[in-house]
Amino acid sequence: MVEMVTRPYASAFEAYATANPDVLCLSADLTSSCEIDGFRDRHPEQFISLGMAEQNMMSFAGGLGLAGYRPFLHSFGVFLYRRPYDQLIASVAYPRRKVRLMGFLPGITTPGGMTHQSIEDISVMRSIPNMTILETGDATEVESICEAADSIDGPVYCRVLRGSVPRLFDTPIKVGQMRELALGDDILVITSGIATEEALRARAALQSSGVSIRHLHINTIKPFGEEALLDHIGSVRKGVVVLENHVTEGGVGSLVAEIMADNGVGKKLVRLGLRDTYAHGGSRAYLMAYYGLDAAALVGGIEKLLGHSTGITEDQLTSTRIDAVHSAVKAEAL
Amino acid sequence: MQNSKTTEAVAAGIRKRVFEHAMRNNGGYLSQACSAAEQLAFLYNEALTLGDPTLPSIPKPFGGVPSASNPDYHTGAGYNGPFEPQNDRLFIAPAHYALVAYATLIEVGRMDAKGLEMFNKDGSSVEMIGAEHSPGMEVHNGTLGIGFSTGAGLAYGRKRRGDTGDVCVFMSDGEVQEGQTWEAVQAAAHHRIDNLWALMDVNDQQCDGAMDSVMEVGDIATKFTDFGAVCVEVDAHDLSALREARQTPHEGRPLIILARSSPTQGMKFLQKRFPRLHYVRFKSEEERAEMNISIAAELGIDPVDLTDGGH
Hints:
The complex is a heterodimer of chains A (334) and B (311). Chain A is an alpha/beta fold and 334 residues long.
């Protein structure tokens, strides 16, 4: 049974920010939704409320960066790039301000529907020069995201999980270092964020069906060192499957495809994610099943590469489901 | 730096330099020089506390954009003096006023006149739309409406550090059509950011023509006051009025000075072009010659020598 951690960001941010006086906490009217309400109440002198005005918040943060501060912007991921995109480029990314964009509710982890779901954020951020991208996949990564983000000499966008988060790992994020979760030699599975938990759900079933899986978890999406990935791709016989909580265009799947193409890697690649579609509002489990982002979808992708069925049934996946908690938790309120 | 000229003389010099440049280069941002000459002269020659320039008077060529692999990158802020706690900072929010701002730097001795010859030349840092690395520019403002927000953030940070210097944003009135301007003013007022002030060139002009024909903005003085700023309106060409406006108390609030200007001040000949004044091009050689004689006479100078090699 996996440990579930409640609001890991809240305590992690408070500990980090209070130890670093040049870190400022910025919020755009989603303070409790981003788990910084306790910080606001206990450290008001380090908290700046900027209201529902993300464009100003972004440029304001650029000005704070010019003054030598390291502002942490808190909002839903989607509000940190769609509305204030011009400001993100001109005030933050171009001048390489040390602005930390803490984007909550990545992808379909919100029931808020299209307006709240940052499904193309990685694609957008990957194409912005000077931007670094980190993504958290468990409670330990959330707990270490502040220090990891603040180590970046320039702007950084982070996909942050909130609420009840499973603990999958026991070591903090090391920027630029992928996690090797299995070292099999049939199929390379690459996951990031909540997709990693899904892949772990399928692990036992895949093992018992005789498929040898090599599994990598990516927490540093940009910049991305190719060498380790190429070694892993070279170590599997059948091909590569990427599963991500993002559209299949421009995300981790595209990143892997680009690296394979650039290096002339003649192996098959299956990219799983939202397939050129918006999502709608619903629970995370429902959305992951509906849009093919869950463990069953991953098994399907692996079978496509194998060229035959594994015989794995939904029941086997459900029986190994890590999060008894998740199924009991209602879709989180906004 | 010691003022070697009166502010009136600086303003006259700005118009002259921009006029000569436009004559030689088949057009330019003439109306911005007309409307803003006194304002930029006032800022650089007396209103702002700026240290001596830290960058060479002849601008270096374009040195690359900011990146992890460009450690020598720097902005053009050094022309406004070093980042020291007692110094003011200046953002030129309408980056298309760059030609006028460069002319100002020359007039106040912060840049060599050769800098203007590099204007809009490939490989030069003296860009047509002022970039972050252009002389006198401290941040990118070419996208209108972001300047006051950035200034507010910098001012908040400087106040928190205990710096005594202010942050000044030179703005244009077209920027009030951008929602971000109002977000910035309300945030500056909410956080009582009063080491921040703006001087806005209200020339009622924008790219498409007269502002009223493009998008009416109403009584912006009342709007700024309602959003929490202290706002005063003055004649942009009256230096004593600008001086008095700068002294307006604004404790706990940003100060916004609306400088009502004429886009043809000092070059009445341009009224023939009204309302398309954003960027003046010559329609013919005849017009160029006529403008050369007429405006030179208004400015009290000889017509610009337009023959080859005439500089």
